[in-house]
Amino acid sequence: MGDVITQLSLLLVSAVFVNNFVLARFLGVCPFLGVSKKVETATGMSMAVMFVMTIASVAAWIVQKFILVPLQIEYLQTIAFILIIASLVQFVEMVVQKTSPVLYQALGIFLPLITTNCAVLGVALINIQKDYSFLATTVHGFGAALGFALALLLFAGLREREELADIPESFKGVAITLITGGLLSLAFMGFSGLVK
Amino acid sequence: MIEAIATLSGLGLIAGLGLGVASRVFAVYVDPKVEALEEALLGTNCGACGFPGCSGLANALAEGEAAVTDCLPGGEDVANALASILGVDADATAREVAVVLCKGGDIDAKTKFDYRGVKDCWAAMEVGGGFKSCGYGCLGLGSCYKACNFGAIEITEDRLAIIIPEKCTGCTMCVPACPKNIIKMVPADQKVHVLCSSHDKGPATKKVCSVGCIGCTLCVKKTTNMSMVDNLAVVDYSVIDNEPSPAAVCPTNTISDFEEAHPLKRFKKEKKKKAVKKTAKPAAKPAAKSDKETVAEGEETKKTEKTVVAKTEKVESKTGESITKEEKTETRMDSAVVDKSEKVEAKAPKKEEEGNKDVS
């Protein structure tokens, strides 16, 4: 039992820091650059991603184990996962809108944005690739989302400061954003080797 | 192969059915008004209204927490569309434009000294309270010009800021930009403004500016919508009826009518007017009569009045025949009025039809 908990916590740490989805795997770069102008919106986006990633990895795992593997059509993974994740997010959006208007106000705008985000699809596919158990899949999905949130919030904080910084004319805008993202990725490389 | 197709179709079918059922079960009642409002908005989610995106403004509008004019980039068209959906008046009075309440450029108003410092009104204010002899006068160094994001402010050749009402979006950015505090927001449909902010007594104003309000109270006596506040004539914008126009009775020409255009064109126009001052007067009288008939016709007459002034100027250069020719131009003007007003009337029903189509 203790062994399982150690493994799961290691998996979580590795998903957040070592194999950070944005900064080490380069997945989900679009929202990373797009929704990182303000810490406030970045927080909303992070929450939505956490929510969707965890649910999506669980749903994809179930589909894989109980439908695709028994029928020996694993090669349909990608397309089946897209279908499942997209409709799941739509469904969740409807439920949230009905049951919790407050939560919908906070996440509503971001949910459709990440329906088929590559980070969401990526985490589902990696779970299958690494042959994780159901529990490990859940933890990994959540950890990956946590890593995404961490990267996004750090980046948003940096970009807010850049607004006030005296940036050379030729670096303004996208250039300095990409450089900052690169440096942040470089910093996260320091975590490699933390978990094998 | 068949398995694959069947599985995918099955998954799709289940997902589709599930979503279909869910959309019924978890249906949230959305006010159709909100949807219509959102459609009428630009959909750019620019945030200029202060609400989170166009849907945010649509919600606020439906709940009566926002004004139809809140969509600044949409302007009048969007405001009208929103108003028709909400069933309220387009409410042109709600739209406000900024006006610089000063008419005294360097030509009309005296300066205390020659200012050659930084080209900024606030900087100029540091030097003896500005170079204008009048303490309330526009310095015309363009602090408001820089504050305007819409290119609605122009600086004339004789250093006077002028706001073009057609371009003004009513964003109020220029109001705090003026160190003299002479930019005011006025209802967009009001065309008559007192272009002076001086509370000095008449003789003092007259000494420093030829177009300042001297507090003669003529406009208050002869019109219905004027009042005096501390030696300065003030338009009461709540009174809609402004016949006769206060602009016509003002001896110093301080009160200006924006109906034709902003007095920006005064350089060309007023020079002409000064040149033909005596000859222009009889031409103005018949124009004033036809004014009362229809608005459209009134506008036309004013346009033709311009041409008359231009013509009489030419006429004056050939002195001697001036009086007879002027009479001819008057008759010409009348015929022009009739022609053009007919055209206007012919166009008007078409416009109404178009408007009806939009609503339906």
- State the total count of DSSP E strands of chain A: 0
Order of helices and strands of chain B: HHHHEHHEEEEHHEEHEHHHH
Strand content of chain A: under 5%
Termini separation of chain B: 52 Å
Main interface: chain pair and counts: A-B, 20 and 18 residues
Question: Structural class, from secondary structure content of chain B?
Answer: mainly alpha
What's the main sheet of chain B like? 2 strands, antiparallel
Shape verdict of chain B: elongated
As an assembly, this protein is heterodimer
Helix amount of chain B, in percent?
Answer: 40-55%
User: Using only CA atoms, what is the Rg of chain B?
Assistant: 28 Å
Number of strands of chain B: 8
Uncertain regions of chain B: pLDDT < 50 for 5+ in a row? 278-360
Relative helix content of chain A:
over 70%
Shape of chain A: globular
Major sheet of chain A: size, sense and barrel closure?
Answer: none
Q: What is the succession of H and E elements of chain A?
A: HHHHHHHH
Mean model confidence by pLDDT of chain B: 73
Total helices of chain B: the number is 13
| Neighbour order of strands in the largest sheet of chain B | 1-4
